[in-house]
Structure formats: structure tokens, C-alpha cells
Amino acid sequence: MAVSFFVRRERDASRVSSERILVTGGAGFVGSHVVDRLVAAGYRVRVLDLLHDLAHGDRPGYLDPDVEYVWGDVRDTELLGRVLAGVDAVSHQAAMVGLGADFADVEEYVSHNSLGTAALLRAMYDARFDGRIVLASSMVVYGEGRYRCPGHGVVSPGSRPLDRLGSGLFEPVCPRCGEALVPAPVPETAPPDPRNVYAATKLNQEHLCASYARESGATLVALRYHNVYGPRMPRDTPYAGVASIFRSELEDGRAPGVFEDGRQLRDFVHVRDVAAANALAHATAPDGPGAYNVCSGTPRSVGELARELSAAIGGPEPRTTGAFRLGDVRHVFASPALAAERLGFVAAVPFAEGVAEFARAPLREAAS
Length: 368
What we know:
Elements: H1 13-16, E1 20-24, H2 29-40, E2 44-49, E3 68-71, H3 77-83, E4 89-92, H4 106-126, E5 132-138, E6 146-149, E7 153-155, H5 162-166, E8 182-184, H6 197-216, E9 219-225, E10 227-229, H7 242-251, E11 257-258, E12 265-266, E13 268-270, H8 271-283, E14 290-294, E15 300-301, H9 302-313, E16 319-320, H10 337-342, H11 351-360
Parallel strand pairs: 1-2, 1-4, 2-3, 4-5, 5-9, 9-14, 10-13, 11-16
Antiparallel strand pairs: 6-7, 6-8, 12-15
Helix pairs in contact: 2-8, 3-4, 4-6, 7-9, 9-11
């Protein structure tokens, strides 16, 4: 998605208290924190959430009693017509996340993420909605991150060959000369290159929303979340992030199992920082659309996350398994510069502090 250049301006604060925002997926991990932040900022909030049994065993206890909750499916066009009534802005957080169990999940991902977004946009079209759309996108749209070859500059390595992965050779190499590459922060201008089903649906969401914004005059702000962690994560499922998987293993008294050699680089950003980015995306008045990395700006290895979590609760030392998944990428971490410049977003929760809190936070149980 092309990113236009504009100067950040604050919106009229007197308008905030009168605005109603629809948050899809507002009972979930990230969505519920977004709801809390928007309510604290003075917005009126309406939530639409399916309470999908992959993430929820029951209604979570952290829901705000002053928020209007509607329980239903974002693919239900009749319901969407009702929940969009009187809405000034939409925060689209609802999605199936993670790599899933295997490729057999493809229909569910496309149905919930792509078709669900299409249904929402169709209902917005019928409602003549031309307000702001803040989309929960993801760093997975980039595929591999940014790499530099000493001899050929910035290059884009292809998918890692199975034979190299099977031999424990996890680092991508220059597609032109085969030399080792140096990972670098990925900017929003990097071309998308989704490497798995989830990534393909997140990019599809961006494209669908951008198409709607062009036709309707709505303003789209796409927030590309990096590896989000923190309280209210669901307990270990194939659809949870790596932080939740490690935390679940530790809660069961098991050593976290780290894939590959544990040196994969990611950007772990606390969920309260992600919620703050969402609030800023609604509060600023850009002159055009944009896609923004929502990240801490400091890369950490997956192994480091596992060690920090284990140390925080005195758990067993993580074990490096050497296992791999073909849908995974090696390194992807981001430049936070554009979000700082145009949204005023700078992550505030230090890694050690956030991990220590998360290590003791209860995990949300999925349906059994």
C-alpha cells in the first residue's frame, strides 16, 4: 500500500466525546485493550464480537460494563446494518490470527478475515459511511523483513528452501550471490510479500479497505502490528502468538520450546502500546491514508523472549528444538519512524517490564 506524506494534526477535542466508534473483535486480546483506551479518551464505543470458541471459553471478565456489546458475526450483513447505525468511525480488529494448525484452516481464515471484511465494507457502503476506518493489519504482510547484501545492497530473499531448513541452515542468503545477509528494519514502503494464509488475508484486508476508502471518501489508517504480547492473551492454541505459547508452556511447568535456533528476530510490542497507537489513529487528522508499523523499534530474538519469560517466574530454561514451519520467516522487525512522525506514536512499555507483567498475567481460556 502506498503511503502518502502529510503533517500530523490533532483533531478537535470537543468532537471526541460525541463520536461513536464501532470496534469489531472488541472482546478479544487486542480489541479489548483498544476499547479500554478509546473509552478512556472519551469516545462512545460499540463492540461487535463473535466470541469465537478458538479464543473464548466464555464471556471474559474484563469487559467494560459501560460499553455497548453486540454478540454476533462480522459476516452477518443484516446485523452489520444495525450496529453501524449512528457510527462515526470503525476500528476493525476482528480476525483469525496466527499460522493456525495447517493449510486445512485456509477456508476459515479467508472466511473470517477476507469475507468478513468484505461484508463489513458492503454494510458500510449501504450505510453511506465515509468516516474513519482504523484497520488492524500485521507485519506478516511483509513476509521476510529487510535485508542487505554487502555486495548487492537491499535484496529480497525468496522462501527458504526445505533442504536448507532441514539441515539447520535457517538464515536466508542473497539470491544473487549466495552470501550471508544482514537484517535491517523494514519500512512501510517495503513491497508486501505474504508467506502464509494468514498473511495473505491481512494484505487482502488492506487492499479491500483501501478500495472502499477510494470509492467512499472514507479515511483508512492501517496499523501493521508487530508481535503483540501482554495481559488477556488466549491460552495456548495454534492461533495464539509465540508469547502466549511460551507462557502456556511455563504455566504447565514445561520448558518453552523454541523453533529453529532461537535467533529469529522480531519486534515484541506491548498490547497497551498497540491500544495507544489505535487511539492516536482515531485522534489525529491526516490529509490522506497511510499504513504504519506499530512496534517498539527494538528487535529481540525469539529465544530472548523465552528466556525473559522463564526467568520472570523462575521457570525451566527454554529448549531450542531445531523444528521449523514453512510458513515462518526468519527475521522481521520494523522502523517506528513513520508512526512517530505522523501519528505521534512511540512505544512506552519497556520490554523487561512488559514481559515480567505478562509472565504473571492469567491467560484467557478457549472453549474446550
